[in-house]
Amino acid sequence: MNEKTKNVLLGLSTALLVLACAGWVGVKVKTYDWNVRQEKSAKQATDAQKRYDAKYSKLKQQVMTDGASSTNQTIKSVSLQNGSMSLMNSVDKKLFTTLYTYDNAKQYLARADKLSGMITDDVKNDKKLFGSKATGEMITATGLSSNVKSVKTTIESADEHNITALARVTFESGYSGASSHTGIYLYEVGYSKDQHKVTSITQVQAGLGND
Amino acid sequence: MWKEITAGVLCACALGIGGVTAHQAFASNGEIKTDQRADQANREMTKKYNAKYRELTADQLNKDLAKSSVDLDVAKKDATDRINNAFNTAYNNLGKDKYDQARKDFKNQLGSSFASQLEDFVMPSDGMTYSNSMSQCKIGFGKYDTATKTIPVTIAVTYKPSATSTNNANDYWTATYHVDTKTFSNPVHESVIAPS
Predict the structure, then answer these.
(1) Å from A71 to nearest chain B CA?
(2) What does the buried/exposed string (b/e) look like for B84-106 if buried means 16 or more CB atoms within 10 Å of the residue's CB?
(3) ipTM greater than cut 0.90
């Protein structure tokens, strides 16, 4: 084999190696590129969906609020029902979580003040709901505490001004050192949309439960 | 001599790398095609949501709501009447003599699923009725689903188990009311045990 042939062979094998390396890099780059593109487009799709869902929720809320005074009976009735559900879900949750969550007498007796912005004075002065100094002393003596597990709301009736809701409150309560029990209480809650306040809280059912 | 050896080694390396590359290209081909299909689907989804976003207006939602809904006040009254009719029978001294007719009425009022649960529940046994008299029946409705035309219902019943009972007993029912078919599904009964 003369020197020229050897050089050509060496050149060819070098070129072949470069080509193989370039091919390997090319395959890796192409795979990576499509992977990145796919991830990018997936994020764009998720963002587009989120943007649409956000606009839909906002507009639906607006339609439900405006619809409550609509002249179209279909829109009005659905808006009143679903708008009232949305409102009372939040009102009942705050109301009963505050009413049934306490670890000591101080927390128990502070509940009325905590809720004063969302209840009328008549409700605030209801001793059956908010107790008295004597109840506070009993709580200190027995170590009674309570914790809300769930609040489920449905609507009995609703119009442009007032809502009457049923709230089923499940809570755990017990004396210090004793095992706790689950209580299930059903309340009828009156709410004035004009005053933005709870106007009445009446107990409908009271009992022990397993859930 | 070194040139032949180098050329040979280079050739062997090129063949090795080429082989690996060919194998990877074959394996990556499937991965790339999957990514390409996913990318295409993602782009179409983005396009669809962008178009829906542009077209979505409060007016459009109002029209859709009016088209897909019913007068919910009428539907709720119908559901309330059906529950009151059935529960008045079920919880007011339902004896053996009236039980067979009551079962038919339950089915007419509530549909077979709810009727079946209620009739089993209030079936008189050993000459005793389940409830002597119903003192209160509170009915509440949940969020109306315009897509399925259904609305959750809760029913809270307070009753006297017997004529001589001094304490009331409580029952709590939940179900789903189908506005189109005027029937109930998914009935669930939860008794509320009065504290001792």
Answers:
(1) 11
(2) eebbebbbebbeeeeeeebbebb
(3) no
